Give the backbone structure.
Amino acid sequence: MQTHKARRVEIIIEAPMESRLTAALERAGVTGFTVLPVLGGSGRSGRWTREGQVGRQGMVAVVCLIRPERLDTLLEAAFEVVERHIGVVSVTECEVLRAERF
Amino acid sequence: MQTHKARRVEIIIEAPMESRLTAALERAGVTGFTVLPVLGGSGRSGRWTREGQVGRQGMVAVVCLIRPERLDTLLEAAFEVVERHIGVVSVTECEVLRAERF
Amino acid sequence: MQTHKARRVEIIIEAPMESRLTAALERAGVTGFTVLPVLGGSGRSGRWTREGQVGRQGMVAVVCLIRPERLDTLLEAAFEVVERHIGVVSVTECEVLRAERF
Amino acid sequence: MTEILTIAGQNLLSPMILCFALGLAAALARSELTVPEAAAKALSIYLLFSIGFKGGVAVADHGIDARLLAALAGGVVLSFLLPFAAFAMLGVLTRMSHIDRAAVAAHYGSISIVTFVTATSVLAARGITSEGYMVAVAAAMEAPAIISALWLVSRSGQGRAEMDADLWREILLNGSIVLLVGSFMIGLVTGAPGLARIESFIVSPFQGVLCLFLLDMGLVAGRGLRGSRGVLGGGALLFGVLMPLAGATAGLGMGLALGLSTGGVALLMTLAASASYIAVPAAMRVALPEANPSVYLTLSLGVTFPFNLVLGIPLYVAVAGAVTGG
Amino acid sequence: MTEILTIAGQNLLSPMILCFALGLAAALARSELTVPEAAAKALSIYLLFSIGFKGGVAVADHGIDARLLAALAGGVVLSFLLPFAAFAMLGVLTRMSHIDRAAVAAHYGSISIVTFVTATSVLAARGITSEGYMVAVAAAMEAPAIISALWLVSRSGQGRAEMDADLWREILLNGSIVLLVGSFMIGLVTGAPGLARIESFIVSPFQGVLCLFLLDMGLVAGRGLRGSRGVLGGGALLFGVLMPLAGATAGLGMGLALGLSTGGVALLMTLAASASYIAVPAAMRVALPEANPSVYLTLSLGVTFPFNLVLGIPLYVAVAGAVTGG
Amino acid sequence: MTEILTIAGQNLLSPMILCFALGLAAALARSELTVPEAAAKALSIYLLFSIGFKGGVAVADHGIDARLLAALAGGVVLSFLLPFAAFAMLGVLTRMSHIDRAAVAAHYGSISIVTFVTATSVLAARGITSEGYMVAVAAAMEAPAIISALWLVSRSGQGRAEMDADLWREILLNGSIVLLVGSFMIGLVTGAPGLARIESFIVSPFQGVLCLFLLDMGLVAGRGLRGSRGVLGGGALLFGVLMPLAGATAGLGMGLALGLSTGGVALLMTLAASASYIAVPAAMRVALPEANPSVYLTLSLGVTFPFNLVLGIPLYVAVAGAVTGG
Ligand SMILES: Nc1ncnc2c1ncn2[C@@H]1O[C@H](COP(=O)(O)O)[C@@H](O)[C@H]1O
Ligand SMILES: Nc1ncnc2c1ncn2[C@@H]1O[C@H](COP(=O)(O)O)[C@@H](O)[C@H]1O
Ligand SMILES: Nc1ncnc2c1ncn2[C@@H]1O[C@H](COP(=O)(O)O)[C@@H](O)[C@H]1O
Ligand code: NA
Ligand code: NA
Ligand code: NA
């Protein structure tokens, strides 16, 4: 099948920052993203699990498929938000179906 | 460690279509897949979150690790189901342990 | 933006094994990981969904971003735990922001 | 008239409606208040189980009414026919595409069980009884409208409806039908002694649970409305208010023809006036993926549901009382 | 005999059993009805807390019974020994692998707390009292069977059991043991005054909550059965019915030896007859990953659980009544 | 003094506190017992709704008290000022960074609604009434402390607080404020007749629900404590006990100045003594990401919350009684 080069960006970020991140992505012209729940994790700021939490703390994973040429704009927008916060950003090369969607 | 070339296909699709997609994958000879929950997202059909939903609307992410030579069959089967529906399909190159499982 | 080569390891494993896996990862010097919930899946041991379960059965996905040179240590640690259990391990090349975090 | 105003006033100031209003206001003000999905689903399971069970016990108590089958048939007929009225009205009032009109029509032929539950609680507060089997009628009215809508699409040739055996099973055995009919039958079998064992679970807390559930419905409806501003034009909004009135009128006629009690007529009017927002949307995503979900969800959940809750139900109860002299 | 039939009939037509049947039927018919996982877990927390607390209050009221420790020891002995019977019976009736037999045996030595809860509700409906500390006996019977099963595996040399300190902690401090024992002790400490404060939460709605929980159990059991057709042969199915009877007989003997009341004997029979489907499966996935989960889950949840619920419990209650003359 | 000991003793042996202790012990022993997140959130929605509604009904019954506005203002003033006391005390007792001190201070100026709820249930058990509008005071005290803390940070120049319109909306319209104020107003509007309709849902099961909720709080607090061993030094621990006493003293003064009833004074003391662990932490993650969440969460949830629950509340109730002569 016909596929098209793209990038898959995965941003793991604190839940209270989710709406700020997605707003920044939209401002940067990102046309789509998907938010996945996260159960727990570990990093420089230690271990956490959803069970050791009250309220809306915790993290989410935002996945964003994007044309390669738009990657830099996206990363800059994401970095702006992520900068002072805990969380990680990774980028993978991928292929997508239906390029007109991106 | 010994690893083997494979493809990771990620299909984000409406929940009511999940069983149809997995049935199509099974018919196409796919030996395994994993379904992840999705909290929300945004795309051409606008923004949605699980909280703005009643009933079983919403989306899921189906992840499928597959031998490279089987990719085309899988994509055709998936496309058949996804075609008229909202959602996205991406393919990444990867390596897997225990190739005999795929 | 400045990005750095890394690997994204995704391990799908039974929930009762999660704490053993993350403990093994930590012993292997992994500095961070993220645990995602899984709704269901299919593989050699058949189809399962969270709804057909009582108690804490089911699976989780553990995602681990890691420097390329540490990959082998990680895979060996993971394999040790996964070996006799159902589940899959995949590795993707990726780029990360803020390399000092890994 | 004063009767209508009294009922409407009492209804407006009931904890249920105020909870709905609170949820709506919170969502429109973009508060992050949410009821977890699992909790909302658990509340709806409770409501369906309770109302089905109590309906079954009522039928067990009074004996199987001869009108049961007639009422079921009447409900099915209404569900089949209302989509045609909705489809035509949308043609006059809006410029929606053929497919969108058909999808919306399916929603208005089907029913909203929460609207029905709220109506039963209004009746209970006024001491008006109704036929226990009305819950079975509600279940029977969920699906037929979908057939009419798909027929409207296939006739037009302007789209393709994807129907398969799986979809039929999903529609006919959807969660709320199974739970409603199942608990109705359990109530029928166990009768009053069964009720006695679980009364303090399914009867006394019922209205309080309904409050929390309507709070969540308000949140969901409000979020839906915010997310779909501009999706509906004035004509569509008008439809969202006129169609329930048309449906209620048809329900009134059918209820009288069936010889139902005052409460039964009011409930049948409510069923006909209400629009689905759970079972039918899911079916439409599979069968008519090209139809725009924002349109039908906003109409049924954002416009018609609040209208029925706040104004419709008191109106239907008052009219049913006046017409049947109950 | 007529006594058994009466109890069985009443049991069959109770809302609880009918709810279980509804869930089973819905799942087998592939309805999409589901109880959210979080809701089901919340219901089970409620049931465990309520039954533990009430047990503690009962002990506080009647004073610590001299037989408490003996009953605990008796339960532990049963849990240790029953796996050997199960292992042997599986060897005769089936061709399962050594490891699968051991894994299944662990389940049948351990207990199902929902079966126990249902039995207490059957006793309550018949006005039969029982020793409050039976919930502590239930908790004590959860884990010993696992040790026997792992010993059976290691003795055979046909597999390797992975036991570590973590696993022991997970087994001994698993959620249901902690909640059951913890709420038992809270009930013991607060006694009747404590109960008075939360009675309308943990006593009156209990049977209704049990209904919804059994609805979910029916759904889960039904989905499990559908997903594992062909996994069990006729011999295994027979085991799923004979083993609880064997267990109940052992429980009867132990109960009489301990001098328990009619209700206590019935509950000990039920515990011995029931098979675990929460704690033990999780432990088996860690300790005996090669054992096939479909086999042990289908047997314990799909065969023995419904059998006990529908036929077993009334039988055990009737037999306990006849034998103790209660 | 004996009064304090009596209340403390009764409190310690209440099912609520024992449930909290059970959760704490289970988590510290690394049991895998958990209350699903959705269930815990549902329980908290129930508690907030119930307490808000009952407060509104109480105000509707007694007429709007002239002191309502004064009490609201008094609460706001306390919430504004307490962070300065906390900030100073932390400076003396610990070596925390400026930013961490400010973040902790925000928590102690704000309130814990569960602590408040537990105090109302202790009052109810002792037959002490209080002003219905205290729930509105509680809501009013949630946010002001955040402003003080951010001002402390910006003044110091040692960090940067990220405040935007979105964050203000999130703080002021956070779930618990909206639900508490909303249900208060619903109770105010519907009054006693509204309460009658939902009484068996929001009144009778209240204390039982609180038990399960505190069980979960114990689990969460225990897991938090385990995960952050070594994060807090002795000075910080001392702060976690002294600051609530300081807050309670300020609350006592304000309560007397406002002329509140015995119950009202006890509740205002409790509010001032309690520390937020939901709304403020989320706001801090956005506004002061450099502040260490382990520090403020462990202090407020792991130290001060248990202290208030077990010792603080009985003390505040006894002191309020002694001082007001109630
Ligand atoms: N190397 C990593 N791989 C995957 N997830 C990570 C990694 N490092 C951090 N995370 C995630 O990001 C969260 C915050 O990380 P940190 O900022 O390092 O404390 C962790 O709790 C994990 O969920
Ligand atoms: N570029 C993208 N990256 C990640 N997810 C996407 C993207 N576009 C769409 N999606 C997901 O697919 C859903 C439907 O997309 P669409 O069909 O464009 O409305 C969205 O709600 C997202 O969850
Ligand atoms: N090829 C695959 N792609 C994605 N997930 C898989 C695959 N194979 C197995 N899995 C996941 O791993 C679980 C156990 O697989 P198995 O050990 O093959 O039974 C399945 O239930 C899936 O969730
Ligand atoms: Na209708
Ligand atoms: Na047993
Ligand atoms: Na405070």
Q: What stands out?
A: The interface with chain B takes residues 10, 12, 36-44, 49, 59, 61, 72, 75-76, 78-79, 82, 88-93 of chain C (CB under 8 Å).
